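Q: What would this complex look like in 3D?
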Amino acid sequence: MGEHEDLGGLGWDQPIDRRALLEKAALAGGALAAGGLLAGPARAVPWQANPGNVTFLSTQLNTVQESEAFRNVLLQGFRGKTDAIFAANDSAFLARIQAEAQAGRGSVDLLGALHGTFATLEDKNQLLDLSDVVKDFTTGKSAISPEFLKLGKLGGRKQFYIPWIQATYVVVANKRAIQYLPRGAKATRLTYGQLNQWARNIESSVGQARVGFPAGANGLIHRFFQGYLVPAFTGGVVTTFKSPLAVNAWNYMRSLWDSVHPQALAYEFMQDPLLSEEVLLAWEHVARVKSALERRPDDFVAFPAPTGPKGLAYMPVLAGLAIPRTAPNPAGAKALIRHLLSLSVQARTLSAVGFFPVVSGRLSKRVSAGLRLESNAVKLQQQAPKALPSLLPIGLGAENGNFNAVYRDTFTRIVVRKEPTTAVLADQAAKLQAIMDKSGAPCWRPDPPSNGACKVR
Amino acid sequence: MAAVAERVTLGRRLRRWEGLPYWLILPTLAYLALFFAWPMVKSFQLAFQDDGVWTLQAFRTMVNDIEFGNAVRFTLLLIVVIIPVQFLLALVMALLVNAKLRGRGIFLYIFLLPLAISDLAAGIVWSSMFTELGYLNTVLERIGLLETPFIWINASRESLLLLTVVVAEIWRSTALIMIILVAGLQGIPRDYTEAAEVFGAGLYQRVRYVILPMLKPSIQVALLLRLILAFEVFSTVIAITGRGSTVLAAEAWRWQTANMDANVAAAYASLILVLSVVSAGLVLGLLRTPKEQIAR
Amino acid sequence: MIQRPGVWLPRVFLYGGALVLSLWVLLPIYFITLAAFSTQDAVYRYPKNLVPRDLSTETMRFFLNSEGIVGSLQRSALVAALTLLFSLGVGTPAGYAIARFVFRGADTFRLAVVSTRAFPIVILSIPLAVTYIRWGIDDSVLGVALAHTALALPFAVLVTSSVFAGISVELEEAAMTLGCSRLSAFRRVALPLALPGLAAAAIFVFIISWNEVFAASILTLRNPTLPAQVLSVLNESPLPFRFAGGFFLLAPSLIVIFVIRKYLFNMWGRVVK
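A: Here is my prediction, written as structure tokens for the whole assembly.
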């Protein structure tokens, strides 16, 4: 299966002493430290005398292990003193930004959050323009993909955030479930139909529906619809929202849901149900299954999302760094940005915190077995012949939340409440169009580009 | 002569202090006005305005939201089920603690423990009790009541969801009511209950005809507080049922933090405020305690 | 002599009832404690361990070693103490007024006070935080204590009012006819009788402040209280850490209640009818 595939092109193919690493991984944080220590000495950023005190507020890496890894591993070599604060959740983060902006005074120098979080800021000009910093990351080994850089403009002209780390969503299965794969199906190259059949096989054999989706309050299932299900069936996200192909997609989901664990609406992070084995097969954000894969790499496999009629649709997730206008130490914040985007730190990022780097250079480092599973799946996903990246929404501004709610409500009505598909899609399409019109956002990949606001056909 | 002087001074004293109650409540009023006035006004504004234009759009969105009906219904259901059961339980606990049992200090301490638990921690505890491969099923299987794990948190069976939230909430918040009732019980002069006993009143009669009436002020206070809190609590609901069920406060939270729509969130908050105030008003009205009855 | 047949029977029921209720309260706390001190694998296993087995301090150690725990503990204690002082100081007069006086607007006042709690703190968070930053009390112990006082005031007012209402007013009136001023009648007669009830009010104001998560996390940044610090763990980390975090939040409260419980218990003996 995926474990021993060569990761090739990205240079992550050094042999590792798995046993030693696994032993260390048994201690909390051990694997992360091991990954960090093996990456070689870090060099201090040469072009800043002393960046001073930098207060960094981030929504990412806010679990116990990741935040310790950030402080102990990723900050190594930074000459300034960093106060790394990890917001409990998006709302606390945004509340703090809004409050500091409204008061005209703040304590936070650097912000770290997902594209989706920055995108909801009503007034983007609360963030400084980082075009001067971006110049260093457009070519060479430190180059960040132009598509990511474009996302950082939040649909405007200034560079509001710089891409920092990326992730995506994969499917994770307990090895016990592999035996129930339908005949002829290969987990790394599933179709949606085969996935459904696999789910049913699991249920009939085990006696309980054991497929899981993060459909809970903070769960990311709406990304599944936006980045995986709908594009894979229809080739689009917004334009094809109520097309007959979309009807197929949602009917498929309703059928799949019969084999999904009844507690799915309470699952936020799939790693807990996977580890307790309430769920044997799940779709989830890589960071939210990381601890399952790292703790018991022998029990799990990770593989790319299934392929639909229009291809293997997947959604890359981007986290970025931004400087608020009220930052007391913007120079120090910029120095920290350069530090976190430096090659040596980006190289350590995967093993430290389970997120993938955004710079494109060849990175050599050693990864734990669990993270190898993850990165294999991600690589397969990205390099699949019919890969169809579906980007995060761009330019929606304050309507981001409502946009996500449209997909979530569609799911609730069609799949949970079993309302008739075509009628619901027509209803929700009207809401979607209103959102697109209000924000004026043009279409984004995989939809074809549009003049003016994106239209639902 | 001295008696007249006494009465005059007393009368003068009483008159001079006529405005006393207003002075006494002033600090509280001022404090709350200072802290809540501006934020509340701003938030209220959001419910009725959108960028400066007066509109009811936020309320329309709220009412047309697919979760609105469920939120209202579930909130009211929870209140109607939890509060009576909780009061009964709290009364039993308070009476137990008040009775001269050996080791009542320990019982009191134990009954008070849920107070020590924040609602987040309570949510974690109970979701791991009720989850399919969790503590409750472990215990039930161990004592033979179950063969395979039972799915308590089942979104397609609302009564089960209600049960899980009810149990968790009663566990978490009964201590509060118990404390108030205990404080009230302490104030009931013992000769009343003793006299009743002497006249042959059994436990039930003593409780119903002596203790409960004298406990009315405490019950009123506890009911008032509990009602207000009941409209506010949502973290237990989310922690246990996720999106399987929802209450008004959870919707307010969701619109504020996930949908980033402060207007609709404020609309929900206004609805919660109105419902709370109305029910509080009802409590104050129905459980009116004439001062003469208790200040004997 | 009144016949009371089977007077021992109620006693048995009483003890039995108390035991059953105690068990009901204790079991979930016991489980969370057990899980917080178990190995991570044990936490995920099924059937769950019901007795101490597979113990380990790996997750708890993470907490104790993680940055700023001691500081946040101290801050929480300080905030709670300040909240206690402020809310009882401000609220007790109001409670006394409601209990003793019949005045116009008494009911409206009570309603208003209680209604402040009806507005979800989530909605108030941003305006409140803006005010704090402008006033310079953002991210400070005093600031959080002030906010907690606002949250606890309704409790303080209502509970103290019921406490005073339960004290016979004639005692104070008697003292006054004997020459005491209203204030000294209050101080010498009403206050001592009210102490047990006030102690109860003090306990749960302390606890309210100690456990309060949301306002504390919005109003602090680099100087969090314990719940604010632990909040991110409780929301996003894997289950073993959530148990450890939950236990860590709960342990200090257990100790505080234990200490105060003795005090409360002793005070009962002094209640004179």
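A: To summarize the key features: The radius of gyration of chain A is 22 Å. Residues 421-439 of chain A form the longest helix (19 residues).
Q: Very helpful, thank you.
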